[in-house]
Specification:
Length: 276
């Protein structure tokens, strides 16, 4: 006996319902967007005026019309590093390696994308950084760039970038100059010069220290000589005799055996002939 094929009998309108559900599912999937942490979104209205600059959408689940597109960008602080070839004040080529911290203005994200495009870092930030770096580095010599001017250069580049990006809906928060690379010959010359300057300062310090020590010893010797002079002037023969008598009386009271000859010493002072 042959097997009969199984037949499914859909109710009237069943196929239409399934098709409708599939269409609704597709429309729903096209209409929902999830914006991640630290991100913001703006809507591109396909049948409207393009980017909607009135509203920035925050983190979480968002619903948009299926014919529109949600553009999502990071709105938290970000950083970009770059290495630029710039010229110093004397025309020497210098390579500056730096990092920039920036963030878009959240409420003006739509205006930023509408005026500068989705790739606004390349269109707006990179040219501003390069222009500021060239302007600032061009004010200094290689020696200044290599040694003591690093923090000043960072602040001046930051100031320049903020002026360039004023009213451009993009804020630069900080500039860090990681490294300044000079040609090897220039770098070696600067290091040799700095070493010689350090040795010269050390030599001058030693000379100054020795000079102060000599002055101290001279003052000490002069003080002792003056004290001896004053003491010698005050020691008359009478005072010396009195001091001799005092010493004799103390010795006479000592338990050690001795012979004291009174009046036999120079200037009539006693002579001690014996002791223990």
């Amino acid at each position: 006996m042959a097997n009969k094929p199984i037949e499914f009998n859909f109710p009237k309108g069943g196929i239409f319902t399934i098709v409708l559900l599939v269409v609704l599912l597709i429309v729903f999937s096209k209409s929902t967007v999830t914006i991640g942490p630290g991100e913001g979104g703006v809507v591109f209205e396909r049948f409207g005026d393009g980017i909607n600059t009135e509203k920035t959408y925050g983190e979480g689940f968002q619903i948009v019309a299926p014919w529109n597109r949600m553009i999502i960008r990071k709105v938290r602080q970000q950083s970009v590093s770059d290495e630029m070839n710039v010229l110093s004040i004397n025309g020497l080529e210098v390579r500056v390696n730096g990092t920039i911290w920036y963030e878009p203005e959240y409420n003006n994200l739509g205006l930023l994308i509408k005026t500068k495009g989705e790739d606004y870092e390349r269109e707006l930030l990179d040219p501003a950084i390069n222009a500021a770096a060239r302007s600032v580095v061009g004010r200094y010599t290689p020696e200044q760039l290599y040694s003591s001017k690093r923090d000043v250069i960072e602040q001046e580049i930051l100031d320049e970038v903020q002026i360039i990006l004023k009213d451009q809906y993009l804020r630069v928060k900080r500039v860090l100059v990681k490294d300044v690379k000079l040609p090897t010959t220039i770098k070696n010359a600067i290091e040799t010069k700095l070493k010689q300057e350090q040795e010269s300062l050390e030599y001058e310090f030693r000379i100054a220290k020795a000079k102060k020590e000599a002055e101290r010893q001279q003052i000490d010797a002069e003080g002792k000589a003056k004290a001896n002079q004053i003491l010698s002037a005050s020691l008359t023969d009478k005072i010396l005799q009195e001091k001799g008598i005092e010493a004799t009386l103390k010795l006479a009271g000592s338990e050690n055996s001795k012979v004291i000859v009174i009046g036999s010493g120079k200037d009539g002072l006693p002579i001690i002939l014996g002791n223990q």
